[in-house]
Amino acid sequence: MTTKLKLQVGFCSEKGLKEENQDYIGHFIPVNTALLTGKGAAFALADGVSSSSEAKQASQACVTGFMEDYFSTPDSWSVKKSGGKVLTAINNWLFSQSNQYQDISRGLATTFCGLVIKSTTAHLFHVGDSRIYLFRNNNLEQLTTDHRIHMPGKQEYLGRAMGIDYRLDIDYKSLAIEIGDLFFISTDGIHDYLSDKLIINTIKSEQHDLTVLCEQLVAQSLKNGSLDNVSCQAIKITELPSQDVDEVYSQLTKLPFPPELYEGVILDGYRVTRELHASSTSQLYLAIDTDTNEKVVLKTPSINFEDDPAYLERFQMEEWIGRRINSPHVIRTIEQTRPRRFLYYVMEYIEGKTLDQWMSDQTEPDLTAIRNIVSQAVSGLRAFHRLDMLHQDIKPGNLMITAEGLVKIVDFGSTKIAGMADVSTPIERKELLGTKHYTAPEYLINGIGTTQSDLFALGTITYEMITGKLPYGDKLSRLSDRASLRRLQYRPISSYVSNIPHWVDKAIRKAVLVDPTNRYEIMSEFESDLRKPNPQFLKEEQLPLLERNPLRFWKSMSVLLFAANLILVYLMIT
């Protein structure tokens, strides 16, 4: 039987010598297996800054907000993105509340330590001087760094906290975990009054009952003279998700491959009409839902990969992706209401043509139509990016255009999901890159892509819609190292088409620059620059040829000098 993540937790919090307890502790371990797998378990501790009269409200809002909102973020997001987005929102709320008070001492400020344990990885979020420790192999390691500012005269001030500024600088780190690991989270009312040796000895003697462990450490810190609130939380890893490839393969093959499909066959209530497309990796069939008479597309896996767990995982992930994206510019995956007996999934049927076919039908570039296509593709890609996904295979064959001109992105076979990358697996996951002519150079060099990589592919398609060519010819597909990358030369659109504005070419060139950091940061900027001139591009157009294109200038000068020499020689002879 496949095991899952299992944890033990204990905690204790006391006000100590203070009038009220301004610390707050929280944790949530999902009972639902899917939620535990997709989001993990979360633990948090906050210590309200004592100089603020609203410290208690701040710490409570921080912990409860993190617990509630983290699990509300898309499961396609990475833990880092989910935690960062949530904490940024909480920080902004705390700071905005503080601004309501003229007296700065009434602000809402607190330290924060957050721990998310997902799959076989621990993710730490930290700001302030509360701490997260790891106890492993009888050693205690402090995983966080105190954000304290040391002043002359042995005075110390808190350098960072939640709620003191709209800008939030929060530490993040991740580390692999092992069975038997124990994480210990504490406020400064605990660790400032206990030595590491004492904490280690207490853990060794009481790690089987984590509540008793925390109670003893709280009591000992008060006995040692702690003047602050005293709070701590302990989390122990007792089981980790199975890393046995046979067990994982068994889960992936719960549903058998479909039988051979042909016209008239009914599969789980879908009557097959005809085959639409077949490749070495999958088949697409047009079918009719016998309950609704709706035309749909069935995608079935290729029998060639029935013993390949990586392929099976990726195929099933395609449906997972499609059911999470809701955009008119992305093909819709249909949720099935009838029991499913075989491995396949259902998509909407799009009556139209691919962008490949659309381009072959064009006699000359129509900028208005091209801008409309790009604008819709940008909307579709943003639906992926909002969910922390990269499509990674944007090409003309994966853009469908209906008779009404609606553009839809299809095929999720190469899509990378940040949230799934946080889940460890014994399956060797291979990065599936897109078609070589549209694949961004950074993929070919180091295999790491960003949203700018999808932009590169879209920019390449835009160039091709105008010229029928590729911006770097076929040289991109032959890249092998960084040296060959530096030799790539963009060919201006004017080399092929004369009636395209210079600023349009500049926009496309920026979208397909070799260095991803120099491309547009957001796709809407590219879309905007295709529609109206970017003032910077107009300024560049007015520059002298020597500044705009030194190579062309000196080539022209060489030709002129050569011609002048010929004339001079002719005059001397005659």
Helix and strand arrangement:
Layout: E1 6-14, E2 23-28, H1 33-39, E3 41-47, H2 55-70, H3 79-98, E4 112-118, E5 121-127, E6 131-136, E7 139-142, E8 148-151, E9 155-158, E10 171-176, E11 182-186, H4 188-191, H5 196-206, H6 210-223, E12 230-239, H7 245-252, E13 266-267, E14 270-278, E15 282-289, E16 295-301, H8 309-322, E17 333-334, E18 345-348, E19 352-354, H9 355-361, H10 367-386, E20 389-390, E21 399-402, E22 407-409, E23 416-417, H11 418-421, H12 441-446, H13 451-467, H14 482-486, H15 502-511, H16 523-531, H17 535-542, H18 545-548, H19 550-573
Antiparallel strand pairs: 1-12, 2-3, 3-4, 4-5, 5-10, 6-7, 6-11, 8-9, 11-12, 13-14, 14-15, 15-16, 16-18, 17-18, 19-21, 20-23, 21-22
Helix pairs in contact: 2-3, 5-6, 7-8, 10-13, 10-16, 13-15, 15-16
Please estimate the helix content. 25-40%
Q: Biggest sheet, in brief?
A: 6 strands, antiparallel
Alpha plus pi helix count: 19
* CATH level 3 topology of the largest domain: Phosphatase 2c, domain 1
Secondary-structure content class: alpha+beta
Strand order of the largest sheet: 13-14-15-16-18-17
Reported CATH architecture of the largest domain = 4-Layer Sandwich
* Silhouette: globular
Contiguous uncertain segments of 5+ residues: none
Count the E strands: 23
What does this protein structure show overall?
The protein is α+β, with helices and mostly antiparallel strands and 574 residues long. The chain has four domains: 6-244, 4-Layer Sandwich (Phosphatase 2c, domain 1), CATH 3.60.40; 255-348, Phosphorylase Kinase, domain 1; 366-542, Orthogonal Bundle (Transferase(Phosphotransferase), domain 1), CATH 1.10.510; 550-574. The strands form six sheets. It has a six-stranded antiparallel beta sheet, with helices on one face. A hairpin with a 3-residue loop joins strand 8 and strand 9. Helix 10 packs antiparallel against helix 16. The longest helix has 24 residues, at 550-573.
